[in-house]
Design a protein that fits this description.
By secondary structure, the protein is of the alpha+beta class. The chain has one domain. Helix content is 41%, strand content 25%. The strands form four sheets. The chain has a two-stranded antiparallel sheet with strand order 1-2. Strands 3-4 form a two-stranded antiparallel ribbon. Helix 1 packs antiparallel against helix 4.
Length: 157
């Protein structure tokens, strides 16, 4: 019986690379989503709100931002995790913070006393950085543990 070690190693390497990419994507999305529950990123707690929220949690009102975190590309050579979409265009502002002026478009404000027309105007805003996605040492440690266990399980079979 002839054992083709090169073929066995090549097959195992392809399986390890694809499995590792999937583990990285799954673990990263899980870590980034957990930052909303923990209200901290890589051990650094988020800035508390100036006014306590009456409903929802910090950065979670509808869950749209949390649910927009997803893997966009998963391949052995590259993994891209993204947050935000056309309905969640504020993801970058919350992740990186923002200080400056914004233009508020004209709109109708609906109140108990009736509808009121609001003219276009500018407003100065200061949104503190509450990072929920990016490079994190905690994530790297978790990835190393999971990848080592996966590679060991593949090579032992």
């Amino acid at each position: 019986m002839k054992i083709e070690i090169d073929k066995l190693l090549e097959d195992s390497m392809e399986e390890i690379l694809q499995g590792t990419a999937e583990i990285v994507a799954e673990t990263s999305v899980e870590y980034f989503q957990n930052t909303f529950r923990d209200k901290k990123f890589d051990g650094n707690p988020w800035a508390p709100p100036r006014v306590p929220k009456r409903s929802g949690s910090l950065l979670v009102q509808s869950g749209s931002l949390l649910n927009s975190i997803r893997p966009v590309l998963v391949s052995p050579g590259r993994i891209i995790i993204a947050a935000g979409n056309e309905k969640v265009d504020y993801a970058q502002v919350h992740n990186e913070g923002f200080k400056g002026s914004v233009t508020i478009p004209a709109h109708i404000r609906h109140t108990r006393r009736g509808n009121h027309t609001v003219r276009q105007h500018t407003r100065r805003v200061n949104i503190p950085k509450r990072q929920f996605i990016g490079d994190a040492r905690e994530l790297e440690t978790e990835l190393q543990k999971r990848i080592e266990a996966y590679v060991e399980s593949v090579l032992n079979n």
